[in-house]
Write a structure and sequence with these properties.
Order of helices and strands: EEEHEEHEHHHHEHEHEEHH
Strand order of the largest sheet: 6-7-8-3-9-10
Helix content: 25-40%
CATH superfamily: P-loop containing nucleotide triphosphate hydrolases
Structural class: alpha/beta
Largest sheet: 6 strands, mixed
Shape: globular
Number of helices: 10
Strand content: 25-35%
CATH topology: Rossmann fold
Number of strands: 10
């Protein structure tokens, strides 16, 4: 579903250039949930931004569902790939109701039966019709993130990019959102690429993960390896010890 080959991403130029991602390579088969872990600033979210076209300066190879991406993203790309951002407070328009948020997305992607689809999306993320005409300020953090997930699901994508989707939420709500994502992946046959600094979240959500340090991938391992505390790279081992 996704193949990243020797990806480099940078910001600025000359003496001001910052290399945010350096030679990253990994592949995510269809239906798998793959995690990117590491400290803040290690380049995890920058990889997601390069995939979606939000990071303009990159080199290497990005292939989605067999199609190699160029510097711009065709409209059809967003029918296949959608992203759930970290902060549900910032990712929803404060003056748009839930109905407007979902309806506009469906309209932009050419769907006709918008009313029925809005209701179905709200049901799928566990909100229901009573939330349809509410505004973001009338929703809790967990409810806002459910709306953001519904918006990402609206074009019926195959690949979801999850940028720390629970880190801005209360601990009591995090498990609900993670379990919702697990159910949606199973029911819809989705593929996930998930960024997190929380190894327990990745252990719950993913089959494999890549550990990043200073913009480079230092190790790719199965989650079983993570659970057995059997990482090989010293940095991966230090992350595991810190999480314990």
């Amino acid at each position: 579903m996704l193949e990243i080959g020797k990806l480099n991403v940078w910001f600025g130029s000359g003496i001001d250039r910052v290399d945010a991602v350096k030679g990253a390579s990994f592949a995510v088969p269809k239906g798998e949930s793959f995690g990117l872990v590491g400290e803040s600033g290690s380049g995890k979210s920058t990889i997601l931004r390069a995939i979606t076209g939000l990071a303009p300066h990159w080199s290497g190879r990005i292939t989605v569902d067999g199609t190699e991406l160029g510097k711009s993203r065709p409209k059809a790309f967003y029918n296949t790939v959608q992203m759930v951002f970290q902060d549900p407070y910032a990712s929803l328009h404060p003056r748009h109701s839930v109905d407007q948020v979902l309806g506009e997305t469906l309209h932009l992607h050419g769907f006709k039966d918008i009313d029925a689809r809005v209701v179905k999306l709200l049901d799928d993320v566990g909100l229901g019709q009573k939330f349809r005409f509410r505004y973001p300020h009338q929703l809790s953090g967990g409810q806002r993130q459910r709306v953001a997930i519904a918006r990402a699901l609206a074009p019926e994508p195959q690949l979801l990019l999850l940028d720390e989707p629970t880190s801005a939420l209360d601990v009591s709500v995090q498990a609900e959102i993670l379990n919702l994502l697990v159910d949606l992946r199973r029911d819809r046959g989705l593929t996930y690429l998930m960024v997190s600094h929380d190894l327990s979240v990745v252990g719950h959500m993913c089959e494999r993960l890549a550990v990043m340090k200073d913009g480079a991938i230092v190790e790719v391992m199965a989650v079983d390896t993570l659970r057995r505390n059997a990482a090989e790279h010293p940095y991966s081992q230090s992350l595991l010890q810190a999480s314990l």
